[in-house]
Amino acid sequence: MATPAARAIVAQCLAHRVAGPATPWRDSLDLVMHGHGVKAEDFGRDAIPPAPFALVIAAAFDAGRAQTWFRMAAADRTEQAALLTLWAREVWPWFVSRYGLD
To answer: Do 14 and 52 meet the contact criterion of CB atoms below 8 Å apart?
Structure first.
C-alpha cells in the first residue's frame, strides 16, 4: 500500500498530466517528485504497470515504447511479462536513480 506522501505525488502527477497533456512526461515527474522524501517502496501498487502512475514513468523513461506501455493491459501474458521484465531491469531503476529513491 502506498504511503500518504506517495499517494499525494501520484495524484499531483496524474492531475498535471490531465491539465497539460502536451507536457513532456518527464517534466510532469520532475514537477512532483522533488522534495518529498519518499522511498521507492512507498509507491506500492502505483509503481507497477499498468497502474496509471507507472505508465507515466514508463513513458518518461522508455518513450520509444510509450504506446506499447499504454496498451499493456490488453496485451497477452507473454508481452506483459516482457514489459514487466523491462520495467524491473531498466525503467524502474532509471526512475529510482533520477529522483534519489534508493
So the answer is: yes
